[in-house]
Amino acid sequence: MKNKLFLLLTLAFVSVSTFAQTMPKDADPKLWARALKIHKKAIIIDGHNDIPSPLVDEDFNLATDSVGKFHADGDPFHTDLNRFKRSGITGEFFSIYVSGSTLKTGGAMRRAMEMIDATNREVEKHPNELLACTTAADIRRAKKQNKVCVLMGIEGGYVIENSLFALRNFYRLGIRYMTLTHNVTHDWADAHRDEPKNNGLSEFGKTVVREMNRLGMLVDISHVSVKTMSDALDVSTAPIIASHSGARGVNDHTRNVPDEILKRLPKNGGVIMINFYPSFLDARTNKEENERTAKLKTQTDALKEQYKNDRAAFNEAERKLYAENPIYIAPYTRIVDHIDHIKKVAGIDYVGIGSDYDGIPFLPEGMNGMEDLPLVTYEMLKRGYTETEIRKVLGENFLRAFSKAEDAAKINSRQISGQGSLKKIRN
Asked: What is the pTM of this model?
């Protein structure tokens, strides 16, 4: 009996101590321990991770220790299997991101298929750690099995190449949300930082949203214009999400969601999942980052020419140049400022986590990778959030929205939509 008790205590200590290295300086040890306990019990869902890009382009393997390693473009890695364990994440949306440049070059659908395959192969290689998921029930099952639930979302609605046939087949392949566009306006949806040409969503774009509702695929309003956000809310009969955005009321950036949209969330039931990129979190970081880029352009261009045949050497030289010209990096507490704002404007039921791991050049001060996610839980607890509220933000809010989207699809399952293609866009 004593040996059994000792074993249980040891296992409990080990499971909690996996988070211990992230304890912030000057933290209250008792509050930190309580935060870790809440974090460990919670179902945690992250709305956006760009790790599929290096899976395809750099032959990255999630079993690799990514700490201290860099992407081909010089940005640090945030994700690997060990970091997943330390993060406490239950469900992770792998982003099937396709560049808007494919609108000129073509190949969007093929690129998406490559990334879906790479994601599936990673799950197949690591069955003890990863579980392929497509439903809310799968996420809860993964929690019980102590595995990471791998879900997929398309980033860039142009991937369907104006075809509802393609949209339906992507759903069959496991895609459970689609960001209506990325940073470019296309045939049926306007982007946040591009010239509008549809006044939000075109009529075909609205058909796409209705078909996503019918399928049970979540509509993602990250990257879109405010008018596109509004049109999506007008049309959608299921909850929408912003898989990786922030609150414009905290930082007036076009990638963030304005209060006029937040106020509509309670009726819709949607969730805004907070992006961790400091320039989206904080105006000062955004300003200083842009100023540094402009200031160092001549030197950066010279380095590109000097190391035009050695990408690794260029990346190292650029990192050194940036280190010599530091900027203000917003702290991780800024994430919770955005959560606070959405809680105030929309309510605690309409906010979640959408890190953008491995899709952003750097994380907030105090964070190095997904292993530091417990800091967000600690900060919420420090600010007086209840355990119930924390668990809602970490994952339960998304689970509710996901489940409601599934329910809406069941109701609409007998409504067979039109075939729909580019022809309808031209009308």
From this structure: 0.93
